[in-house]
Amino acid sequence: xxxxxxxxxxxxxxxxxxxxxxxxxxxxxxxxxxxxxxxxxxxxxxxxxxxxxxxxxxxxxxxxxxxxxxxxxxxxxxxxxxxxxxxxxxxxxxxxxxxxxxxxxxxxxxxxxxxxxxxxxxxxxxxxxxxxxxxxxxxxxxxxxxxxxxxxxxxxxxxxxxxxxxxxxxxxxxxxxxxxxxxxxxxxxxxxxxxxxxxxxxxxxxxxxxxxxxxxxxxxxxxxxxxxxxxxxxxxxxxxxxxxxxxxxxxxxxxxxxxxxxxxxxxxxxxxxx
Length: 274
Known about the structure:
- Helices cover about 40% and strands about 20% of the residues.
- It has nine helices and eleven strands.
């Protein structure tokens, strides 16, 4: 069932206080968090190095170190942007996040069909969900994995549902989809989620000197009438383009600019199926 706590609520006062900090404070704060994570706490450095080495075996040590630093910078920047989510106004969100190529999505919804949006789990997916909720014009239901910490769970649900998104625990997504039938709405998922429980939820990705498990993109959508899976029909690709606050002496940076070598001019893409 849809989590009843996803109705619009105000975040805790201290979260709103942090979110009210100006960007000229939040951006240096992100830099400080990244430096501490990289040099002091050394968060997850071993698995990060192993993953990068397996994925990019030709990197030199200097290039590997740069990718690792970029990872921490990107992670810290997204962290402060997630905090800022609780204070973003509709106007600021529209200025910073633009939905591109969503005509096939709206056409499918207008025809009376639900649509499944599948995105990569990278960059700032929190802002992407908020923009979808604000701009799509149809109900948005998003799968999420409940957090272990209670207060973090409550605050995250409040932030994600600010503009009307309904949050559904990932393990309950399939029965929720069945109950909704053919009601037009967008069901949003990221790459490490799927609308069913399966022992075959991974496939091997060959490359980088070995086989590496990765999640499969969901390949079926339930047919409520017969309770039989219906193959998904791919509608197309859409994109979400976002911009970050300008730093001193520079123009706005694209959302993925610090994402370990991501092309700053490339938008976050979504696969659209219906």
